[in-house]
Design brief:
The chain is of the alpha/beta class. It is built from 18 helices and 14 strands. It has three domains: 2-78, Arc Repressor Mutant, subunit A; 82-185 and 381-422, 2-Layer Sandwich (Nucleotidyltransferase, domain 5), CATH 3.30.420.40; 205-375, 2-Layer Sandwich (Nucleotidyltransferase, domain 5), CATH 3.30.420.40. This is ROK family protein. It comes from Agromyces bracchium.
Length: 425
Amino acid sequence: MVDLLADVVVSDESSSAIRIVKLVRSGAATTRPELGRLTGLGRSVVAQRVDRAIELGFLEELEGVSATAGRAPRRLRFRSERGLLVTCALGALHIHVGVASLDGDVLAHDHREWDITRGPELTLAAAFEMIAGLLEQVDDVPLWAIAVGVPGPVRFATGRPVSSPMMPGWNGYDIRGRFEERFDAPTWVDKDVNLLAVRERARERKPLDLIYCKIGTGLGAGLLSEGKVHRGAGGAAGDIGHVRVVDEDIPCRCGKTGCLEAVASGWAIVRDARRAVDDGAEGLLVDRLADGAELSPELVAIAADDGDALALSLMQRSARLVGGSIATLVNVFNPSVIVIGGVVAGAGQVFLAEVRRRVYELSLPVATQDLTIIRSADDPREPLRGGMELAREQLFGATFARWFLDGAPSVARCTASRIVEASEY
């Protein structure tokens, strides 16, 4: 640890140059005079640092245009076109991949239905094929970083899943190593809902105390504390899906009974809907099944939004249970924002309204007086954008000092600092 800590010490010259690149990249400063005001550095020092950043390829200087007499200060821009970022979002029943420039704008993306229980070898082979196809669509630009989201707990420092009931055969699998070996780019692996939480932080453009609750095939939460992801000692922070919420012996995929996921997740809703149909239920949902539609959480959510009685009852029960569990988190964590996402939450305002009612009913008033509860953006690219934000955070925050003087990141430089960064996030 001592050697690693010593290795991240940088000179004052590099430190100030790194800060200048960060200010330009964030848009906080675009001219040398602005950099001088924000950093407190003298004009000649700013000039030296800017010239160094330009030499390394991070910045570019553009001629200024003045609306009045005289020459306007030349503007600086971060060269976001120098590298590419890739996000691979693995879900229980799908794979989403996307490629972006260094500013996080998604340039191309792809989606494939996929059952993650097919195991890591087949799943990653499919993901690699999809990513390679996207990289062929963009110009010949080097890949700088990869972010991977998975539907279960992850030890962030190692990039390995930890005992996820949703991912049999994945426990301890070296996802990060496989990606780095295949694409020769530093890779970070995190729980999928953490990527969504990070995306919400980027949208708000400020530090947040936030809970992102995703109710899809499974169920989990991502936690932000003052803008930083709270992952817990073993990567299991926010795993509310396996909190016992009912006394009934309803089996869960984790091997226990009565878990929130066993009664309120997408797969639980589908199970209960199928039982109701088999018992003779009638209505719009049953009619759609008779017409050949496949029973899924999305179908139940759509039917609920259209007013089907069975679908509404299933959604409202799920929302009551989810809301009760979130209320406990509100009392303990005291967030300012709760975001409800996932296919189950797509049932219009029905699901959200019930969650809100339960949270305000069961939480302490002091914990809810400044609380906002909203639905997530209904955009399948949101996990991709969240992954881009995670990659940018790690590249230009946690590991930037290690590879700044190289002008581009490398697996060796970024990997060497992970023991240090794991203690910071």
